[in-house]
Amino acid sequence: MKTKLVSLIILIALIFPTFKFFLGDKMFTFNDETQIANLHHYFKTIDLGQFPPRWAPDMHFEYGSPFLSFNYQLPYYLGYLGHLGRLPDIVIFKFLLAFSVILGAVGMYSAGLTITSSILFSLFAAVLYSYTPYQAIDHFVRGSLGEVFALALFPWIYLAGYVLIKKPNTFRVIVLGIFLGFLVLSHQPAALVAIPFFTIIFLFSAICSKKISAVLPLLMSLIAGLALSAYYWIPVILEKKYIVTGGPFNYLDQFPFIKQLIYSSWSYQGANPFSLDTFSFQVGLVNLAILVFCLVYLFVHHSKKSKVDLNQWLFRLTLLSTLIIIFLMNIRSNIIWERLSLLQVIQFPWRLLMFTTWFTPLLFLLISKSLPGKIANPITFILLILSIAINIGYFRPGLIVERNDRYYNRIFLTREILSPGETISADYLNFSEDYAPLPKDAIRPKYLPPAKLTSKFPDTKIVITSPNPLLFRAKVENLAPETLTLHAFNYPGWEVSVDGNSTSIENNDIGAITFSLAPGKHNLVVSFTDTPVRLFSNIISLGALVICILYLAYHLTTKRVAPTA
Description:
The chain is α+β, with helices and mostly antiparallel strands. It folds into two domains: 2-401, no CATH class; 453-528, Immunoglobulin-like (Sandwich). The protein contains 21 helices and eleven strands. The chain has a five-stranded antiparallel sheet with strand order 4-5-11-7-8, with no helix packed on it. A four-stranded antiparallel sheet has the order 3-6-10-9, with no helix packed on it. The chain has a two-stranded antiparallel ribbon with strand order 1-2. A hairpin with a 4-residue loop joins strand 9 (506-507) and strand 10. Helix 5 packs across helix 6 (89-116). It is elongated. The two termini are 29 Å apart.
C-alpha cells in the first residue's frame, strides 16, 4: 500500500506540468469561451430552483433557450460545488480542467496496476495518457469541459469493465453502470462512440475467452448506466423535434489528412484541416510508435498460434477499434458517415482523437506482460521520458491574459455587466449565440423586451410578486379583455395559471408566450415544468439512483467477519 501511495505521488509530480497553469491566478485565451457563460447559466438555473436544469432564462436577450436540456451536464454539477463556495466562474473552470487531468491519470494508473501489476508500466501508461497531444488541445486550445471529462472517465470505464469480466458481482455491475452514466452526462458525442466500442470490445472478449458469466453483468451495467442518465438522453432524443437543429460546422470540412495525424505544427487557432491556421491533429509520436509495435506484435504472436487469453482478446479488439477510429477520421470513410447519420452528431471527425488517446496506452498495458523481461523496463522508462520530453511544450496557454468573470459576462450576458449609460451590454450585441438552440417558430430578437410581462392596453395594472423567470408570479388588474405577453420563448413545459386555472398559450410574432385574460383582478403564475417525457425520464433516473445508493450503502456497511475457532 505504501509503495502504491508513493508511486501515485510520483505520478502527480510527473503530470504536474500538464495542469500547473490552471492552479494560478492568470487566465488564458481558448476557443470555446462560452464555457464561462455556460457555468453562469447552469448555476443560475439551479439557484432558481430547477433541477435538473433544463431552461437557460438569460439566453437570447432573456427570452431563454432549452440549451441546458441538450448540453452535457456532469462538469457543471461539479462546478456548482465551487459556486456554493462563492468561487469566481473562471476559477471553477480552471479547477475543472485540472481535476479532469488528475482523474484521468489516476484512472489509467489504476487500470495499469490491475492489468499488469507493474508500477512502472502503470506510470508510463498514465503519463502517456496525460501527455498525449490531444489532451493539450482539449485543455489549452479548445477548453472543452465535456471532452476533458469524457477523457477523464475513459480509463475508469475500461478498468471497471475489466474487473467485472474477471469476477462478476453486483457491486461491480453498479460501479461500471455509474461510470457509463457519468460518461453520457459528460459528453454526448463521446458516449455515442465510446459505449458501442466498449460494449463490443468487452462482450466479444468475454465470450471469446470463455467468460460467459460476465456477459449478462456487462449488459446489466449498460442498462444501469442508461437508466441513471435517462433523465438527460431520453428528452434529448424525443424533444429534439421541438428545436431548430443545425450549427455553423459541416463535418465534411473537418476530416484531417493522414500526414496531419502523424504530425502537424502546433497552433492555438480553430480547427481547419485545409489551412495552415489550424490546431494540430497529431495522434502523438509515442502513441504511433506503440501502435506500430502492436501491429508487428499481433502478426508475430498470431503466427506462433499461442494461447489467447482475456488480455489477448482485449488487445486484439482494442487494436481493431483503434484502426477503425483512424479510418473514420479519414475522408475516405465518408460513405459510412453518410449512411450513419447518427455519427454526424460527433460534428468533427478529428474529435475521434479522443479514442486514439485512450486506446494506445491501453494497448501497451495489454501486451506488456509479453515483452521480453530484460528490455521491458528500460524501454518503458525511455518511452516515459520521451512522452514528457516530446509533448511537454504543448501544455501551456497560447496567450496569458488578465481577465475575470466581468470580461466574459459582458460578452455573453445581456446586462450582468454594464458600462455607464448602457441598458444592454454593447459586447453582447455582437454575440450571435448560434450554439444555443431556439425553439421551433422562435425568432431571435435584437433587443431586450421592455419588461418581462407586458400588456396590450396601457391602463392594465401589473404588479410582479415573484420575478423568478422559471416560476413567475404577478397580480394583474385589467378593465377590458386583455392579451398579455411573457417575454420568454414558448417551448413544451411552459404553463400559465390564472387564478389557479390552467390557461391556453399562444405564440406572438417571434414565438414568445401570449395568453388571454378576462376583465378583473387576477393572480397569475407562469412556470416552466416537466413534460410527461421529462417526468418519466426523471422517474427512471431517480429510481435507478436510489437502487444504486441503497445497494452501495449496504455493500460498504456490511461487515464480513471471518469465523473464529
